[in-house]
Amino acid sequence: MRKLKTIEMNRLSVEEFKEARKLPLIVVLDDVRSLYNVGSVFRSADAFRVEAIYLCGITATPPHPEIHKTALGGEDSVDWRYFETAEEAVEQLHRDGYFVYSIEQVQGSTKLQDLKLNASQSPMTSQTAIIFGNEVKGVKQSVVDMSDGCLEIPQFGTKHSLNVSVTAGIVIWEFARRLLTDNAASE
């Protein structure tokens, strides 16, 4: 095996990314305090061609050198929008027809592996948003209350939380895997 050179990977330019078909998924970051976590989520969102990121509350916005350090340019390719509160973002998402999941451990949450996407809609046109909360406090209860559902990643160790950027990478990948697989099967 030989590692591929960057030129062999056929990466999209920022302009090509902006024009390309996106995964119908919006990532919401609510009061995420670490700029490195924000940058890491931008990088994952770029990797899976996520539609947009909504940044809420104290979550920092680009341009910022600490976001860029982990985003590596993902902050330039992925569309983003700022909201004063996550509640305002959820209200807007509902007005725009999105199904909103909070990623949180709650009573009655759905385990990520048990997620059932709406089969009545085309997988690449169903609109979903996923909310990630503060590194310490998670998703606020008021935001959980506004959500259409909650998803959690099962964990089996002594800790019952993952870093927000790790969680985002896992959840974004799972949506991409399911939507892209379902889309390929339906074509």
Automatic annotation (TrEMBL):
Keyword Cell division attached: no
One MF term in the entry's GO annotations: methyltransferase activity
Record key words, sorted: Methyltransferase, Transferase
CDD domains (alphabetical): SpoU-like (cd18097)
Domain tRNA/rRNA methyltransferase SpoU type intervals: 25-172
InterPro entries in UniProt: Alpha/beta_knot_MTases, rRNA_MeTrfase_TrmH, SpoU_MeTrfase, tRNA_m1G_MTases_N
Recorded superkingdom: Bacteria
Name this protein carries in UniProt: RNA methyltransferase
